[in-house]
Structures are given as structure tokens and as C-alpha cells.
Amino acid sequence: MFSVPGGTTRRGFLGLAGAAGAVLLTSCSSGGTGSSTPRRGGTLRAVFPGSGAKETMDPHAQRQFVDIARHKAVFDKLVDLGETLRPVPRLAERYETNGDATVWRFHLRAATFHDGHVLDAEDVLYSLARILDPKGVDRRARASLAAVDLNRSRAAGKRVVEIALKRPNAELPSLLAMTGTHIVRRGYADPSKPVGTGPFRAHSFTAGRSFTGRRFDDHWEGAPHLDEIRILSAETEARANAVQAGEVEYAHEMTPTFARVVESNRNVRIIATPRSGAEGIVMKTDRPPFDDPDAAMAVKLLADRERLVEVVFGGRGVVGNDMYGKGFTYYPEDVPQRGRDVGEARALLRKSGALNKEVTFYTSTAANGFVDAANLFREQAAEAGLRVKIVNGPPETYYTDQLDKGLIGSHRTGATPIPTYISDRMLTGSPQNATAWEREDFDKEFRKAQSIVDEKERTQKYGALQRRIRDEGGLLLWGHPDWLNAVSSRVNGVRKAPPNTVHWARFDDVWLA
Fold this sequence. Notes:
The chain is α+β, with helices and mostly antiparallel strands. The protein has helices at about 65-75, 120-130, 170-175, 235-245, 255-260, 295-300, 305-310, 340-350, 370-385, 400, 420-425, 440-450, 455-470, and strands at about 1-5, 15, 20-25, 45-50, 80, 85-90, 90-95, 105-110, 155, 160-165, 200-205, 210-215, 230-235, 250, 270-275, 275-285, 315-320, 360-365, 385-395, 410-415, 475-480, 485-490, 490, 510. It is built from 13 helices and 24 strands. The strands form six sheets. Strands 11-12-13-4-14-22-15 form a seven-stranded mixed β-sheet, with helices on both faces. The chain has a six-stranded mixed β-sheet with strand order 17-21-16-20-18-19. Strands 1-7-8-10-9 form a five-stranded antiparallel β-sheet, with helices on one face. α6 runs antiparallel to α8 (about 340-350) and α12 (about 440-450) runs antiparallel to α13. It is globular and about 65 Å long.
């Protein structure tokens, strides 16, 4: 067995006025010492891109960042991701596996749920069963945790849970750190009554509008500095106006244009985290013309990546090489950067029969820059002889709709381990396989890679899989952006952290001056 040790006011509100999305802001008084020493008290208002009625307090059905931030306030995971995308213990203070990574044992912390129930192994087993329940609606982590053998998993003590697997998997801790894996109290069934072990108790929630959480003094990691956190939903312009006006203290996912606007604003600062995900284009490889790898390669060669990064990211990012995870563990840094070759792209379009054919580009305002990137790509594609028709879909359902709509579409992801990204998006049956790329031999090789206990050998195997995606798949990843969040000068303790990692949206760590 090997083990992994443990690691580590002003009040107001913002809401949305119906479907029109108008922002209603109330004025409020300010106060504070300006000290960098943590100070207890106050309410912090954080605003995120919203997804309307689709928002949920079910931590196993989360999809949008606003949901994930709310769930992070109320619930905890066994394991989370550190800045290098390696797993770090949370509710599990340590964990260990047998020699072939088929059985994992997690030792739980002395954590308490908001209703006074003390966390135990049965809560973990119940959470896994709920995630894996085939009748459950929209269980984000079900496919990635499909190898968990619930029948053989067991409580090996009050605070020790043994998770058995149907096949070896050296990546189980990372998979338990992905979105949709929070631990709930056994018997939890009603998302409208969330009870977790997180730093804030749920007080109120209205989908598409707001959530309020209040400090949980008995949190296992210590009580938050704040009295209260309000997590709100609003579109890009509303977020920008609110943080500049001092009506909120934290605005998530801001545009490069906004970052330039507030450069000289002493009341707002930008927290920029480099290379915090990826943005690109997905092509449906199960239908013409992109069932022909030559047509998909043509798209990869016609894209002007430098121009896309310059325009869409405002230069705040680096070009991508059609492989996810630049700078993260398992990324093959030795692969030459793919460049633009319009002549070769045209030749491949002609060879595949796609030259001068029209393809539908399905995009949306679901994420900043999607529509701008689609329009710029249309211009670039025309130079190589590919006609692109842009169709805009509703932001609330875009990520689900795009699984079926459009021959090509906008794509982005936050930070996640490379094996999790592949599991989520590149395997037969993956829940977010927007490229419809299904190859049984690739699935088999990926499972082999997961089972390799030796990290050096496993890294080589993942590198080979990444190269295959790059050369054969329907994924054009043209850039890796800086992640831009805006905070009030009154806020202290916000760290640079990629989305979906342990210190992202850690409102229990921050305090108001």
C-alpha cells in the first residue's frame, strides 16, 4: 500500500428582474480598516454568469460555474485539485491503494454536517451510489466513476471507506476531485434542502437569481471570516457594471476588454490566472464532412491561432496545439506546435469533398468570446474555401444542445486533469462528447493508461493518446486563456487559481477590509 498525506461590513444584493435580465442594485454603506490581517464579519457578494432556471443546488447535477461555486460553499469533496491539477486531500485526510490500484482506502476527517450529523463512511458510499444511480438525472460524474464497484465497496471503519473498482485505475483520486462529486449526507434526496459539511450553511436559493449562505462555525477547516456569502447570477455587462459601481465585491469571468477598462481604477483589480483552461472548436466526426479525418485536419490547419488569441483573449493567453492541458501533468510538451497552412487546408478540403461546402457553426453567448471567435473563424475558413454559417443557440441549454446541433461548435473548458478531460469528452459514451469521436481501440488504450501504477509509464501512455486526439480527432483547441476575475479593493485573500481547483471560489478564505 502507498499513502498520500493530508495537505492543507457592507451588505447589499444583486438580482435579476425577470427574463429581461435587468440588474436591480441597492445602495449600501461601507466600512473597514483596510488591514491585510484577516477580519471577521460582513457579507461578500459574488456574481457569476447565470443559466436561469437550469441552476440547481444538487451538487451531483452541476454544470455551470455559478452552480459549482454555490455547491463549494455548502458541500465538500473527498479530494480536490491543487494548482498543478494533482489531487489534494479534503474530507479524506489521507488515502492509499493496493498494488494494482483496484482497491482504494480513504481515511475521513472529523467533519460535521450542518444538521449536526458526523461524517462517516456510509455517507461516502451513499454519495457514490447517488452519483452512479442510472435513474438519477444529469449525474455529471457518473461516466468517469463507472469503474466503481459499489457491491464490493464498504465501510472499513466508522471513518474509513474502502472503494473497490471493477478494473485498475491509478487516477481514482483525480476522478473524485472532478465536478459533481461532492459528499452528501446519507438519505439526501431533496436539492431544495441542501445540507453539507461545507463552510457555509444554505439559507436561500432562487434559480437564475441568487444564493445566500451563512457562516458554519463548526467547519472542519475552521469557520469562514465572512458572516455571509451571496452568490448571484448576471450577464457579462451586468457583472461589469456591478463591480465597478461597488455593488458587488467579486465578479467572475470578466472579458479582456473589461480588464483594460479598469486598469486605472483603484477600486477594482483583476485577478488573472494564466492558462486556466482551453477554448476551441469541436467538429462532429460521426457525419460528413468531418467523418473524413482530412476535412477535420483542414479546419485545424486553416485556423489562425495567434489572431484568435489576440482578438478573442485580448492577447491574454497562449496558442493551443489541439491537445488539452497545456502546462498540466501528463501534457506532452515535446509535440511541435501546429501552425497555419491555408494551401494545405484547401488541398485537404478538396480531397475530402468539403471545398466550397457550407457547414453550420453552432455557437452561443453562453461564454464570453464564443460569438467573436465564431465570426473570426468564419473569415479565416473562407480563405481556405470552407463556407461557415453561424447559428446562435440559447445560453441556458447550449452545452447540452451542442451535443446534437451543428457540424462545428464553440468549445471551452476550465481546468481539469487530462485523464478527466478525456474521460468526460473523448470516449464512447462520454457525457460531453461534442465531437462524437468514438473509437473502441482508443477507449481500450485509455483504460490501460489509467491502470498503470508507474507514473512515468502512465505519462508516456497519456502522451500517446493526446497525440492521437490531436492528429485524428475532431478537436481544434486554438488557445489557452488567462482566467480573469475582478474583485473590489476591499476584498482580501482571493488567490490566483484555475477554475475547478481547491482555491478557486474559496469564499471561506477571504475577508473584507
